[in-house]
Amino acid sequence: MSHSLETKTNLVTDNQQEKANSLSITNKCSNTLLKANPAGISTMIWLRDEEYLLYRAPYWGLTLDIANLNYRCYSCNKDGITEHNPYHLLGCNKRTAQFTQRHDHVKFLHTKAFQTIGCSARCEVLPFDAPYQMLKPDIDWIAPDSTRHLFDVSIIHPHSKTHLKDAASQPLKALFTAAHKKESKYKQASVNIKSSFHALVFDTYGNVAPQTQEFYIWLRAIARENMSLESADTLVNTLEYDTACAIARHNSRMLLQEDARQEMCFHSASSLHL
Ligand SMILES: [Zn+2]
């Protein structure tokens, strides 16, 4: 009895997944969903109670209804994979369609906010010449003060192989590293065309990278110069809240494996017609 307890304690202490989880759920300063007071925020997206519960379930150690009998991931078709790692469903590398939908939703929210503040904001641009012509920032924005800003959006999963070590070491370290990598990648190319680059990096918990938090402070200042104080604050608060809600909503769908199962139904229906 005492031996099994000790073994369990060692497992928990050494478990990087648990460490990453506990460091990620305590960042109230960087997690819009945790710190937000939805009352008073005029927002496009409302998170339903069941979506919020589903989204938080693996982080709170709840099983809810996210595990099927065989603990199967319908995307990579592996049985047993979610039993000991419920986070797999948010990071399975066979879920590229869902990752793209979530990424594009967050990109759309930011593009719309930039357009509201003023001047032009475009998506999927190719602003760089050789040797950087392969770099494709997500958004290109000319701000009202005529400065040019390029953005790339990324939503990382702290429990994935790439980020787990950082995520388990210090709060926000995985986010900081991911944003820093993007900044390094785009730095010289952006300087060459007299623009600034900003990494918009979030994690699946709704935490925001320190560099992105700094950008939001600057964005609020620019918005205040070009709109009424109240409109500017509402716009930035709404952007932060809607981004967190969008990530949570897409995550809850991924945990339910809705897309993968719909695809399976579609494929089996198609095969019936052949
Ligand atoms: Zn999988």
Brief summary:
This protein is an alpha+beta fold and 274 residues long.
List keywords for this structure.
binds zinc ion; single chain; 274 residues; alpha+beta
Characterise this structure:
It contains 11 helices and 4 strands; from the N terminus they run H-H-H-H-H-H-E-E-E-H-H-E-H-H-H. Residues 1-14 have low confidence and may be disordered. It has a 4-stranded mixed beta sheet with strand order 1-2-3-4, with helices on both faces. By secondary structure, the protein is of the alpha+beta class. Helices cover 54% and strands 9% of the residues. The protein is globular, with a radius of gyration of 20 Å. It has a domain at 96-254. Strand 2 (139-142) and strand 3 (148-156) form a beta hairpin. Helix 9 (210-226) packs antiparallel against helix 10. Zinc ion is lined by residues 73, 75-76, 78, 81, 88, 92, 94.
Secondary structure blueprint with pairings:
Layout: H1 2-14, H2 16-24, H3 32-35, H4 49-60, H5 88-91, H6 96-117, E1 121-123, E2 139-142, E3 148-156, H7 164-167, H8 173-192, E4 195-203, H9 210-226, H10 229-256, H11 258-273
Parallel strand pairs: 3-4
Antiparallel strand pairs: 1-2, 2-3
Helix pairs in contact: 4-10, 6-10, 9-10
Zinc ion is lined by residues 73, 75-76, 78, 81, 88, 92, 94.
Stretches where pLDDT falls below 50 for ≥5 residues? Answer: 1-14
Would you tell me the overall average pLDDT?
82
Instruction: Classify the beta-strand content into a percent band.
Output: 5-15%
- How many beta-strand elements? 4
Supply Rg.
20 Å
Characterize the overall form: globular
Helix count, per DSSP? 11
Q: From the helix content, strand content and strand pairing, which structural class follows?
A: alpha+beta
Largest sheet: 4 strands, mixed
- Each distinct ligand: zinc ion
> What string, H for helix and E for strand, traces the elements in order?
HHHHHHEEEHHEHHH
How helical, in percent, are the residues?
Answer: 40-55%
